[in-house]
Write a structure and sequence with these properties.
The complex is a heterodimer of chains A (459) and B (150).
Chain A (H helix, E strand, L loop, with lengths): L1 H18 L13 H5 L12 H6 L10 H4 L4 H10 L2 H10 L1 H9 L4 H9 L3 H10 L1 H4 L7 H26 L5 H17 L8 E7 L5 E6 L7 E6 L6 H28 L9 E7 L13 H21 L5 E7 L1 H10 L7 E5 L18 E4 L24 E2 L29 H10 L23
Parallel strand pairs in A: 3-4, 3-5, 5-6, 6-7, 7-8
Antiparallel strand pairs in A: 1-2, 2-4
Chain B lengths: L1 H22 L11 H19 L3 E3 L6 E5 L3 E5 L1 E6 L5 H14 L3 E7 L2 E7 L5 E6 L4 E6 L3 E2 L1
Antiparallel strand pairs in B: 1-4, 2-3, 3-9, 4-8, 5-6, 6-7, 7-8
The chains are: A alpha/beta (459), B alpha+beta (150).
């Protein structure tokens, strides 16, 4: 009996530990000042100009009726909505929320969205942002600034709505709404104050159910290197968005530090810039559904769209794009990279594998790295097909075991178990940072070759 | 009766040990300061380090706190700092001064030569971390404050 109780307790603690810090506040904290004091987006509603209307080649010449709109999808729906008077758009959104959810679930490609958006004049853009911030904020292909404005607007208004609901009814919020409010407060916390350095942008926001979010640290429009942090099992918006954004912030600091150090050592002419993305853009699995690939396919499509959006908005000035994927997130990443999505570097840590059998199956222009910590039961499991750490897969091993940094001689801590790959000061974190700034030659693999990875090689 | 008391304690100790090992928690001594005071203390250490090294510095401190966990599972936060400055007049002298200053302040100090870069790292018993790197080309300071309850 006692043994059983002990076993259950230890198992529970193990699950809780793997899942990260338990976040179970007894009360809903006040929202941070920054999110409420940020000037609200201008809500003036103006009709699109005739010039703007004419610039959209495929836009309907006259507004469609509600029944006509009911049958169209994708970019055509975007054009139809643009052609409608703003008040009619608002009414349509209010009476047909499901249409917007459907549009977001199967959005037009980022190039199509970008073309549509570029065809709108400033007045029309304001109108669309005002009428449909939830849609505009989540459409890959719309510029970062507008998406950030729209998503922050939605965040503020939804928080206000839920708070008012509690005030007006004079009762405590329903549990579901309380959890939703708590999730939104966590997102606001993760965005930090308006003075956050580097600036943080709310690139994606879904406030429904378990939620989805993407927070950018740095300037996605200009950064030379962009790293997406792709999460795995147990990572939720409500429970982990702050922790995940902190991880992106530490990665950002590491990358800035290394770029500065390498530039100082004469490796490059000038210090380059980075952006990191704390991305929770799909529903990650829990213990009861982690055995299925269903959510990995959802993650595949979501990250593919996100990268497509980045590549679209950067046009001819493409950044170095890396995916740093943990656990089940690496499965989703592998699925995406087997298709049309292409990136410059991939690092997988604690990976349960995927149907892909070789790096040759992946659209990765540079190196593919794999990290496997001691006491982590997930790597080598080949749970979803291949083992990315197997020699025949062809990925480069990335040491996470802890060592003396041969470049700085710092003693780097080891990562142990499934959830310490992102810990500050670890060899894993340093290697992940280096992968993201195209310094794969400095990534340690635990072999004797590490002794040769010195700054002198870059001079 | 004694047996009934000892067993739960043993179970709790085993569970705690397992959790600490799996969670990678570093058990730190606790201090009575608030998170903001801990931040101010870190920034004061860095300001002093800037003065010791000299030159012009660009302060890139992020005012956004980072989540951390104080044993046992108390949610806390710590503040980061990142600063980039001119190269010191003398790399060796700057490193010597910094090493002595942080040692005198009670920190565990390690010093490492990295080619033309010298790194001096200071760690306090409370978990505060500060790192100075100096070379003929630049100086950098990094740090994170002690983890304290919000």
């Amino acid at each position: 009996m006692l043994f059983d109780a002990t076993a259950v307790l230890i198992a529970s603690l193990t699950v809780a530990t793997v899942a990260g810090p338990a976040v179970a506040p007894l009360s809903v904290p006040a929202p941070p000042i920054s999110i409420l004091t940020t000037p609200a987006h201008e809500r003036d509603i103006d009709l699109p100009t005739s010039t703007q209307q004419g610039s959209i080649a495929s836009a309907p010449a006259t507004p469609l009726s509600a029944s006509s709109i009911a049958t169209i999808t994708g970019t055509s729906l975007l054009h139809a909505l643009t052609a409608m008077p703003p008040t009619a758009v608002s009414e349509f959104v209010e009476s047909n929320p499901q249409r917007l959810h459907e549009l977001l679930a199967a959005p037009p490609g980022a190039p199509q969205v970008s073309g549509w958006w570029a065809g709108l004049d400033a007045t029309a853009k304001r109108s669309m942002l005002s009428a449909m911030p939830e849609l505009i904020g989540n459409l890959d292909g719309v510029p970062v600034t507008e998406r950030n404005d729209a998503n922050r607007d939605v965040l503020r208004s939804t928080i206000r709505e839920l708070e008012l609901e509690g005030t007006m009814t004079g009762r405590t919020l329903a549990t579901q709404n309380l959890q939703r409010l708590q999730m939104l407060y966590s997102i606001a916390d993760a965005l930090g104050p308006t003075t956050a350095n580097p600036p943080r942008s709310l690139l994606q926001l879904d406030t429904h159910e378990a939620g989805k979010v993407a927070i950018v640290l740095g300037d996605l429009d200009t950064a030379d290197y962009v790293s997406y942090l792709m999460p795995g099992m147990f990572i939720t918006v409500g429970g982990n968005v702050v922790e995940w954004t902190d991880t992106a912030a530490r990665l950002y600091d590491e990358q800035v530090s290394w770029l500065s150090l390498l530039a100082d050592a004469g490796a490059t002419d000038e210090v380059e810039t980075v952006a990191t993305v704390a991305w929770i853009g799909y529903q990650t699995p829990h213990l009861l559904n982690v055995g299925s690939l269903d959510l990995a396919y959802e993650g595949r499509d979501a990250i593919a769209s996100a990268i497509d959006g980045l590549q679209t908005i950067r046009g001819t000035d493409q950044p170095f794009i890396s995916l740093l994927a943990h656990s089940y997130g690496s499965t989703a990443a592998l699925l995406a990279l087997e298709q049309s999505t292409s990136i410059d570097a991939l690092a997988m840590i604690g990976s349960p594998g995927a149907p892909a059998t070789s790096v040759d199956d992946l659209n990765v222009r540079g190196d593919v790295f794999v990290g496997e910590a001691a006491w982590d039961p997930i790597p080598n499991s080949s749970f979803f097909g291949s083992d990315p750490g197997a020699v025949e897969f062809g990925a480069r091993m990335m040491s996470v075991a802890g060592t003396v940094d041969v470049i700085t001689n710092r003693v780097l801590a080891a990562s142990t178990g499934h959830n310490e790959y992102w810990s500050p000061g670890t060899e894993s974190m340093r290697n992940l940072a280096l992968v993201g700034i195209n310094k794969g030659e400095l990534v340690t693999d635990g072999s004797q070759r590490d002794a040769g990875r010195t700054l002198a090689l870059l001079l | 009766m004694q047996r009934r008391l000892v067993m739960p304690v043993a179970v709790a100790m085993v569970a705690g040990a397992v959790a600490v090992v799996l969670g990678g928690c570093a058990v730190q001594a606790s201090t009575p300061v608030t998170d903001l005071k801990a931040r101010d203390r870190l920034l004061a250490v860095l300001d002093e380090a800037q003065r010791v090294v000299g030159g012009e510095w660009t302060i890139m401190d992020d005012p956004t706190p980072r989540e951390c966990i104080i044993p046992l599972w108390i949610s806390g936060e710590r503040y980061p700092a990142l600063r980039v400055g001119d190269p010191p007049a003398s790399v060796a002298v700057a490193a010597d001064l910094m090493e002595r200053t942080w040692s005198d302040a009670g920190m565990r100090v390690t010093r490492t030569d990295i080619g033309d870069v010298i790194e001096v790292k200071g760690e306090s018993d409370e978990g505060e971390l500060v790192i100075l790197r100096v070379s003929e080309n630049a100086s950098t300071l990094l740090g994170e404050s002690e983890c304290r309850p919000r």
